[in-house]
Structure formats: structure tokens, C-alpha cells
Amino acid sequence: MDLRLSDRELAFRDRLRAWLADVLPTLPPPPDRDDWPARRRYDTAWQRLLFEAGYAGVDWPAEHGGLGASPTEQLIFLEETARARAPYVGANFVGLLHAGPTLIVEGTDEQRARHLPRILRGEEVWCQGFSEPDAGSDLASLRTGAVRDGDHYVVNGRKVWTSHAEVADYCELLVRTDPGAPRHQGITWLILPMDTPGVQVRPLRTVVGSSEFSELVLDDVRVPVANRVGAENDGWRVAMVTFSFERGTAFIGDVIESRNILAELAAVARATPGRDGGTLWDDAALRRDAGRLAAEVTGLWALIQKNVSEASAGMIPVQGASVFKLRFTENRQRIADLAAHVLGRAALAMGDPAGGRVVEDRVNTLSFTIAAGTSQIQKNILAERALGLPKEPRWT
Amino acid sequence: MDLTMSADQRDLRAGLRDYLQGTWTPDRLRAAAETPALDRGDWSGLAGLGVFGLTVPEAAGGMGLGLVDAAIVFEELGRALVPGPLVATFLAAGPVPGADDGGAVVTSLDLRDPVLVAEHLDSATHVVAVGDDGLHLWPAEALVAEPAPAPLDPLTPVSRVKTPPVAGERIGSAADAAGWRLRGAVLTSALQVGVAQGALDLAVRYAGERTQFGRVIGSFQAVKHLLADSLVRVDLARAAVWAAALTVDDPEAGDPGEAASAAKVLADDAASQGGRCCVQVHGGMGFTWEVLAHLYLKRAWLQETCFGQADEHARHLAEAL
What we know:
The complex is a heterodimer of chains A (about 400) and B (about 325).
Chain A: H1 7-23, H2 36-53, H3 71-83, H4 93-106, H5 109-120, E1 126-129, E2 145-149, E3 152-163, E4 170-176, E5 187-193, E6 199-204, E7 213-224, E8 228-229, H6 235-246, H7 252-271, H8 284-312, H9 318-343, H10 356-364, H11 375-386
Parallel strand pairs in A: 1-4
Antiparallel strand pairs in A: 2-3, 3-7, 4-5, 5-8, 6-7
Helix pairs in contact in A: 1-3, 3-7, 4-5, 4-6, 7-8, 7-9, 8-9, 9-10, 9-11
Chain B: H1 7-23, H2 26-34, H3 40-48, H4 67-79, H5 86-92, E1 106-110, E2 117-119, E3 126-131, E4 134-139, E5 144-147, E6 158-163, E7 169-172, H6 174-207, E8 211-212, E9 215-216, H7 221-249, H8 256-281, H9 293-304, H10 310-319
Parallel strand pairs in B: 1-3
Antiparallel strand pairs in B: 2-6, 3-4, 4-7, 5-6, 8-9
Helix pairs in contact in B: 1-4, 4-6, 4-7, 6-7, 6-8, 6-9, 7-8, 8-9, 8-10
């Protein structure tokens, strides 16, 4: 075991650092969070810059236009871009982290040729149509139906929590093609062009106050059979392939951000007078709480290094991914709580320069323990798959 | 960068695990809880496996391995609830003759502690006192201390030190004392990870056997989530302990003090919460002397007090923010 980077990895890191130092000062200021067209332009322009510099699709295989980087190089990429506060993957998330990798594994040559280069160049934005109003944690109960009509499927139903739907070009869509089959065996994975007649996007306002995602209403939407990924009724397996890309790396940059917020919290506490003289930072209980959270952040980074090492060794760190997600999300929420306590009544307005970012983070991170598998589902996964406890009685 | 065990490390762990399973059976642990004096045969057995001389250079008769190998070994010792002043004897291998080969049983005192309590004093041959100015060595019989009639951890006799001796043989500098504390924190954390894992294994086994309401209790989410929480804590702590051990051996990889403090905070939490979980999952049986659950929790509580308590390490980490 060792924690050192190889010469090759160090060279990769140094090249990336130099490039980030050159390019980041040239970026325009980030757009307003409610201006979706501007956000798409900003995020895809960043993706184009990555593409031109050879950093698009870091984890994608080289034969599909990606960088084909090793797991450790992927970690370096995520760590360095987060440290340099480079733009987040944003509107490119589903294309780069879900749909693209799924097409690489499961798509036809035509589907790959049509979509992969455009995703890498930042010319194509994707969204996800998996969850439904009545199919959340129990995704396999989804009811959006697709009926074959010649060389098309006719789709009717509703999807929710669809991020970037207003500005997306395509949607990765799960539909039920065989209502009579056992639940997991009647599902199909489709590529839905968002400009198809009958697709209606209804933005949902989140607790942050902005519209981070939407509801999709699908009314007699005709999707070509050629847009099917994998076989008809084999979509559940394809979706599991999609999910396998989601768990593990999605939050790596956020751990860096957790450390940053802790450091800001300490800086604010050191500069804020206490009621009994001195500063807030003189409070040993505050320092103890901040230190415990810092220990967790350090442990989370070690866990990332362990997960990445396992991936490098050809293992799939399923247990490590669930452990990481559970602990990272809870830790971040507690960091935001502690930061808000330090700010006190300065934490009553979002966007306020004093602490508005933290206030917004405190609200926004409520989603962390819900999205991509709730904490309770993650605990079921660990108990059943890692500890070997009997399955919860379920529909099959 | 590689945070997975090598084939050699897996072999090291498997060999030790086999030996400990044969030696520290549940019945043996129950017996030792009644008569906790150390058996010198056991001590020599551990020394024979190389436990105390793991990081002693090969030229000096040790195995020349790294602190992370020692962390793997100490996790197993913790998991098996092996009694004895394991960390102090390990750290004394080198400066104290006989520590590496089982000839000496070395216990230690940290003079910073406001209350001085020595573990296993009656079985010990030597005491190392860790002061800010350096390391001092006394023969065990030089220490005036009063044994506690009912130690919290039944396998770990403790004696309250009345008056610390004034002088001993100086065997290390202030820097050596700092290194002793640093490595001791990492190894104690490794023991805690082992205690947490052992408690989790016991609780999972029981949850898979015990039936109530017509189902094994491990099929209820309320029980599953308790156990999953323990698993999360132990996995996080183990990664932190490995990273800390590697950082102590290779300070270019990070700040050894911060890495060790993070490991102790997380490992103490994993062990004490894991021990509680084990008692809770056993229900009423978990409150009996017969079931081993309490031994894990009590060992966790004991080790929380060794090499800096979690709050102290947490405040140390806060200073770096």
C-alpha cells in the first residue's frame, strides 16, 4: 500500500494544473441560477474547452473519443478541477456520466456515432426520465407505457425530478413495454428527442426557491424503435448499467467543497466576536464539533482513495460506494448546520455575501440524502449485499 | 497510490486470524474475564508470530515492515479481543530489550493524563513513562499503584498510580515521545477498528439467527439499518487508519499528526458505537455477562482513553482548519 502518485500521474496532474491556471481566469462569470439557457451555454462552453484541451470524457474509453484515463487519473481530474474551483459538470451531467457510458456499453454503432461525439463536444445535453410520481425508490414499479405502432413506440405517462429538462436535447427514458410481465422484465430503455411533439416540460420549484428540475408529461409521444437501447423488455438491466456509473465518483469534487466550507466556517468564527469577549472560535465545543467533521472529511478522502484503488485493481467497489454516499451526504448536511450556527442571524438570507453560499448549501444538501438512492435504500443495500442479511419482503 | 491489501498482507492477516481463532475462543475469553492475569505463553506466541517486531528492521531481528502492516495486524488483535499492553510493548520493541521477542511485557503511562492508570501492571515487566521531555523506563515493580478490584474491561486489569516515580532510565528524546504518541494513536485506532468489526460480526450473526414475529430479526429494516450504520463507521475508520499509517511512514503523503487524529476520532466512534449496536441487537441477552457483546463495548471504552481522547484529537484537527 502507498499513497504516492506515479511519475505518469504526477505529470498528468501538473499538465492539468497548468491548463486550469491558464483557462479559468478567461471564463465569464457564472450565470444566474434561474437562467437555464444561460446555464446551458455556460456549462456546454466549459465542456467545449475541456474537449479542445483533450480532457473531455476523462473516464470514457479512448476508442469512443474519451481520455481513457485510469481510475487514479480520474480522481486527479476531479480533485484538481474542484480545488481550482473550475465549473461543475452541470448540464453535461447526464450525457457524460449516464447516457454516454450507457450507450458505450449497450448502444448500437449508429447510436454511438450519433451521440457520443456531440456529448463530448458539449453540443448535446441530456436529461433523465427514470423516476415517476409513483415510482421513486421503487423504480421498478414505473408505469409510463410504450405501445408499439409500426416502427415507433407511442409513449404516455409522467416523469419527475428531471434536471435540465428545459434545455435538454435528449432524455434517457424508461418505459413499460410489457405490462403483463413481472415488473423487472417489462421495461425498455429509450432515447427520447426532447423536441418530439407531445413532450411537455413543467418546471418544479425546489426548496432552494429555484427550478432545478421538472416534471415531464408525455402525451402520445412517438419514439422511433431505432432509439431503443438494448432489447425490448431488457431495460431494467440496461438501467442497472446506467446506475453503476452513477455511484462512486459523483461526489468526489464535493468532498473538496466540504473541506472548503469547514475552513470558511473556521475563518468566520475566528473573526466573529463572542458574547463573552474573544471570538466564537474560543468555544471549545465549536472546535470539537468542527474537528470531528474534519476527521470525517479526511476519512472520506481515504475511502475515495480506497475505492479508486479497488477500481484500479479491477474490483467494483459497490460496498465502498454506498458507504461513501451515506457518510458524505450526512457529513455535508452537518457541516452546513454547524456553519449556519456560526453565522447565526447572518444565515437568514440566501445569496448574502456574508454567508449566503452556506445558507443555500444548507438547503440544497437536503437533496443529498434523497437523490441517487436515499440513505435508507443505501442501508438496505449494505445490509443485504454486504452483510448478507435476508431481503426485505418485496414484490417480484 | 494503492489502498488495497497486497497478497502478502492478506496472508499475514489470514495466518494471524487462524491463530487467534484457535487461541481466543469465546470460552477462553469468558475464562480470562474471571482471571485476567496474562499468560506468558500467549505473549510468547504473539511474539513468535512477529507481532511486536513487525516494524523493527530485519538487521535488528525484526520483520522490517511498515506501520500499515502493523495496523492490519492490530486490527486482528482488536477483533479477537486479545488482552495485554499490546501497543506499548510494540512501541517498546527496540529501546526495551525483550519487548520484540516476548521476553518483556511493557505497559505505559502518559504523564499528560491528569489521572495516571496503568494497565496490566501485575503482568508487566517494564513501564514506559511518556513525558513531553522524553521517554523514561522503569521496572514494573518500581511503580506504586493500587489495583482496581473491578476493572471496567474484565480482561484489562488497571491500577491507579499513587505517586509517579521521580526518575527512571531515559530511553528516548522529546521527539521520540512525540513519535510514540503518534504511532500509538494509529495502532490504538487499528485495535478499535478490529473491536468494531468483531462487534459487527457478532451482531450480524445473531441478527441472522434470532427469530421474533416469525422472522429472523435481521430481516427487519430497523435492525438492518443499525447494522449498516456500524458497517459504515468501521469501513470509514479502516480507510482512515490505513491512510494514517501510510502517512506516518511517508510524511510527504500528508500531515501525520492530522491523519492520526482523524483516524483516532473515527475509530473510537466506530468501536464505541459498534459495541453499543452489538449489545442492542442482542436485546436482553446483550445485557448478560455470558454474551460477549459487552466485552467489545468495554474494550472500546477503555481504548477511547488511550493515546488521546477523540475530543482532544478533534480540537487538534480544528486548529488546522
